[in-house]
Amino acid sequence: MSDNNPGSQGGPPYGERDKPQYGENEPKYGENQPQYGQQDQPKYGESQPQYGQAPSPYGQQSSAPYGQQSPYGQGAGNYPGQQGYQVQTAENPGKTLGIVGFILAILIAPVGLVISIIAFVKSRKAKMGNGFALAGIIIGALFTIIGVIITIAVIAFFGDLTQQIIEQCEGLPTGTPITISGQPAECP
After folding, report:
1. Residue 185 clears pLDDT 70, i.e. is over it
2. Do residues 104 and 72 lie in contact, with contact meaning Cβ atoms separated by under 8 Å?
3. CA–CA dist 65, 114 (Å, integer)
4. How far apart are the C-alpha atoms of 176 and 169, rounded to whole Å?
5. Under DSSP, is residue 150 helix (H, G, I), strand (E, B) or coil?
6. Measured between alpha carbons, how far is residue 25 from residues 16, 20, 22 in Å?
7. How many separate helices (H) and strands (E) can be counted in the chain?
8. Three-state DSSP class for 25?
9. Of the candidates 97, 109, 102, 72, which has an alpha carbon nearest to the alpha carbon of residue 87?
10. In the prediction, which pLDDT does 119 show?
């Protein structure tokens, strides 16, 4: 029966293979150099890391003392492999204005169109996207065009109606009843 323990196969246990046995290859006095990946202990007069802080390889303190903020961001350098700065996401300057423009584009199309364009330009200057502003521009433009067409149609209809009333009331006194397109009306 085979045993999976590496020590039972005649070799040293895992982790003990590279270590010299007692009395074998002992370093001589003054030759004790740190191995690759290990750091020297601070010399007399150098600052030592505080409790809970990793020593800095360049002789600088790795993070600010208790109660002070580090110049590289919160918790900079406390853990191996951690970057010394934190990326802060910039706020989109046209985000709120884009939402307002989108809502107004539905309710009051020309006003919403203008506000959405302003929000879109602000976001572009910050090199960010703004979907609400873009949607507000599209909806505001469509509703504005539709509104202009409806306004022209209403003006044309009432202009024609007004022209008929003026023609029939010519020479009649104010308040005289007349009939236009089957509807009763009074002369102005």
Report:
1. yes
2. no
3. 51
4. 8
5. helix
6. 15, 6, 8
7. 3, 2
8. coil
9. 72
10. 96
